[in-house]
Amino acid sequence: MAGQDDGKGGGILSSLGLVDPAAGSRTKEPAAAPAAAPPRQAGERPGGRSRPGPSEQPRTESRCGPELSSPQGLEAQTCVLAGEGRTWGRSYYRNTSGRALDAVLTMMGPAGRTVQIRCAVGAGDEPGLCETPREDTAGAPDAYSAVAEFAVPDDEGRLLLRSGSNSPAPADG
User: What is the CATH number of the domain that holds 108?
Assistant: First the structure.
């Protein structure tokens, strides 16, 4: 499909350090880097006092659609994330179009539940993200989907790119 990254090379998630090539489009939130083991007992401070260790990061599951790009210089990938009984939508993007854009991220859940947020997308090569508020999960995580739409604000809202969380069906063969 034109404008679609095959996920094998770089990309938005790779530049943010969020891609595990073996995991395909399912990614995990980055966990805290493990601390190097000091030469003394773990948790022991100089002087013999103990301190609590770093708390373990909660696991966050994600379901992401394909990385897409537009001829105007916009790249995006949209995901549904779930963790600790909460679900939310997130869109990763990079805007090299040379102008600021508007984004609308819509998260749709079971029983017609919808959350929508607007995000300003600045011009530049740095990756960014737009995220909905985290809501209590109601139903199965597969019942949720997210769609991000990126448009030019001063051009009557001309749509440049629409990115969704649902991965395309695998091709046979």
Answer: 2.60.40
- Strand partners of residue 147: 106, 164
Mean local confidence (pLDDT), 144-148? 97
> 2 is written with which tokens?
């034109």
Q: What is the pLDDT of residue 171?
A: 53
Over residues 19-34, the pLDDT tens digits come to 544 444 444 444 333 3
Neighbouring C-beta atoms of residue 8, cutoff 10 Å: 8
Number of structural domains the chain divides into: 1
Closest-CA residue to 17 (of 4, 31, 3, 36): 31
Best CA proximity match to 18, nearest among 100, 127, 114: 127
Residue 114 within any structural domain of the chain: yes
Could you tell me if residue 36 is inside a domain?
no
Residue 42 belongs to a domain: no
Average pLDDT over residues 111-120: 93
For position 11, what pLDDT does the model report?
58
The number of residues in the chain equals 173
What pLDDT score was predicted for residue 9?
46
| CB proximity list for 125: less than 8 A, separation 6 or greater | 94, 96
Integer Cα distance of 35 and 50 in angstroms: 16
Asked whether residue 47 is domain-assigned, the answer is no
Domain containing 139 equals: 12-25+59-164
102 DSSP β-pair partners: 120, 151
